[in-house]
């Protein structure tokens, strides 16, 4: 008789979406560089193996993902997904943004974390082709997956991107320090296909930055 509410964060439910046909959270270069296999046969096998997990999730009454679009994609992928959607927000702009800050600089922000879902490899190629006259490229890597971060750093080293313009943010910063960096970045490239980095995205839009997404991005 107990009612259960699942408040989703993203990483806890994207396995329900990533087996959807014609959908991938990884772009081509990222898949190639990391050796990620993401074909239709694997998706079918994963979806088949997920059947028991989905049946257990159907004990849940209500589900609040970060975006309603996530819920709609899960329902599209698993017609028998029973939890009812309920909207819920876990944060607000006032807690993350300094109202006296606006964009004042000529740098680039690329991604939000040391996770492959940032699709750094694909975005770096695009930024390189644009030949932007920017001061710096900030890449936040303070949290995520250490193995992925090490591989990305080695890639940047081999590609000759270890000059002074490329700044890897590997240490945790205070909110004020991080917001000061954000305010230097009028051009922001978020390469995620899945929902990710919403706190950064909303704060940057409010500051006046230009944000770029892939067209298939759920946030876009």
Can you give keywords for this protein?
220 residues, 3-stranded parallel β-sheet, 8 helices, globular
* Low-pLDDT segments, ≥5 res: none
The residue-averaged pLDDT reads 91
Overall shape: globular
Total beta strand runs:
8
| Major sheet characteristics | 5 strands, parallel
Describe the structure in your own words.
- The protein has 220 residues and is of the alpha/beta class.
- 35% of the residues lie in helices and 11% in strands.
- The protein is built from eight helices and eight strands.
- It has helices at residues 28-34, 40-49, 51-57, 68-77, 120-130, 146-158, 175-182, 198-207, and strands at 5-7, 62-64, 84-85, 108-110, 137-140, 166-169, 187-189, 210-212.
- The strands form two sheets. A five-stranded parallel β-sheet has the order 6-5-4-7-8, sandwiched between helices.
- Strand 5 (137-140), helix 6 and strand 6 form a beta-alpha-beta unit.
- It is globular, with a radius of gyration of 19 Å.
